[in-house]
Design goal:
By secondary structure, the protein is mainly alpha-helical. Helix content is about 65%, strand content about 5%. The chain is built from 7 helices and 2 strands. A two-stranded antiparallel ribbon has the order 1-2. Helix 3 packs antiparallel against helix 4. The longest helix is centred in the first third of the chain and has 28 residues.
Length: about 190
């Protein structure tokens, strides 16, 4: 029986995930080595990576417009690259978990942020920004947020700590035809 391109689709999806992981890892490595680089070298390398992300995003857009079977999976990756490009998310690990649709890992990251704040590894500002990014990602993935999380997200958004402009991505094929509709959350 024919696979109707399922194996090819899976290979393409895997290759795209690996490429996204590589680009996000490149951003993460760059941030980790920022103190070791000259400002000009850092900016040049970051701009090159951002250009690669823009090209990757354009490729995803072309694939999405031509292959309905990949819309949902590629749409999530495209959103992650758009968020990285727009700097809505500044934390590469959050971008990676969001792009792979890993709400459980995002929830675990919230606990890690609290621990890192307590031991002094993260400043209050950095922990609030990253907590806001994680909560924004969870909300966009359709996860239920408790009242305290919603209040923190609203506070951080109003204070300009985080930006929450998203493109809505649906999980079902029935809704995939509407997945290009923009939804702005504030």
């Amino acid at each position: 029986m024919a696979s109707y391109g399922k194996a090819e689709t899976e290979r393409l999806r895997k290759n795209l995930e690996e490429q996204l992981d590589r680009l996000v890892q490149q951003l993460e490595d760059l941030e980790n080595c920022r103190d070791e680089l000259e400002d000009a070298e850092y900016e040049e390398t970051k701009e090159e990576t951002m250009e690669q992300l823009r090209e990757f995003n354009e490729s995803l857009q072309r694939l999405i417009s031509g292959d309905v079977t990949l819309v949902d999976e590629l749409g999530a990756m495209q959103m992650a690259t758009q968020l990285a490009i727009s700097s809505a998310f500044k934390t590469p690990a959050v971008i990676r978990m969001f792009g792979k649709r890993e709400p459980d890992r995002l929830r675990n990251r919230l606990s890690e942020i609290d621990r890192e704040l307590k031991i002094g590894k993260l400043s209050k500002d950095a922990s609030e920004r990253e907590r806001g990014e994680v909560l924004s990602a969870l909300r966009q993935l359709g996860e239920k947020l408790n009242q305290a999380e919603l209040q923190l997200l609203e506070k951080l958004t109003l204070n300009g700590v985080i930006s929450t402009n998203f493109i809505k991505i649906s999980d079902s094929l029935d809704e995939s035809s509407n997945s290009n509709e923009k939804e702005i959350k504030t």
